[in-house]
Amino acid sequence: MAFINVNNLTFRYEGSVNNVFEDVSFHIDTDWKLGLIGRNGKGKTTFLKLLLGEYEYKGNISKNVEFDYFPYEVKEKQRMAIEIVNEIAPNVEDWEIIKELNMLNTDAEILYRKFHLLSGGEQIKILLISLFLKANNFLLIDEPTNHLDSETRDNLVEYLNKKKGFILVSHDRNFLDKVVDHIIAINNTNIEIVQGNFSSWKENKDRQDNFELAQNEKLQKDINRLEIASKNMANWSNKIEKSKYNTTNSGSSIDRGYVGHQSAKMMKKSKVMEKRIEKSIEQKSNLLHNIDRSDDLKIVPLEVRKNPLIIANDLQIQYDDKTIFNKVSFEIKNGDRVAIVR
Predict the structure, then answer these.
(1) Whole-model pTM above 0.85?
(2) Strands 66-70 and 137-142, how do they pair?
(3) What is the largest CA-CA distance in the chain?
(4) Is pLDDT of 126 > 50?
């Protein structure tokens, strides 16, 4: 057992204002099977390339294993598949190669066919077994199930369940659930590692998000209430303070000491409320950092009398856990000029 340690990792692309990662620290056990998740554009591929040393960064990544990336780029694809295996994992015995293929329910006959004549699924199998046969490596697997049939996916699930020491990127959540035992989640403000599969991570994330949303709403109501009360207290205090210099109807003076005491008491309560407001605002600022929110997308067709080109009723579109359209109805006619606004 060994560890991959990431300490104070900071990275941004040249010319960019914002960091992709900022002061990120964590460690990975090289026996873990990790699923790397995050919305598109959050830096999944960037993170893999940082591990591979393709970008310069601030901080430190220490490890005593070598990283290998899948899909492996094969040159001279007209060679025999066995030659590709020997190129990636030299000095490996034939029986070890056949054993790996058996784990994928694949006949060893494919080793003696031209690589470029193999099906997409067969090529993936050849490359995966080759990379796993390498000594002292940690595999970074990027979208291995693209364009695979269901049988090949099932074979891949069985194979990866018998392996350890990899990071898997996949949009197939069912596939992730079946093969990983830890999740690396790239959030809006941090990277977190949790034990379990995608579904268990998602359940905990939803629970945390719902708690934060409820807490945020409660704090906002408290802030609004306290702001009104604090303002009223301050106004009352000022009115009481001014009354010190008034006289009664009989012409006698008001007890200014008593009035001043009441004014100070009111002002003190106002200051206490202001501190409570500041505390609530501080608590509120610690919420919702990792909750993705977006404004509703509205389509406003400009009025032109033409025959209908597109008619939508209760249109719903969702992508990567983000709702693009939610029961939207509209009609677009041929020749319309359509403005899309958020």
Answers:
(1) no
(2) parallel
(3) 116
(4) yes
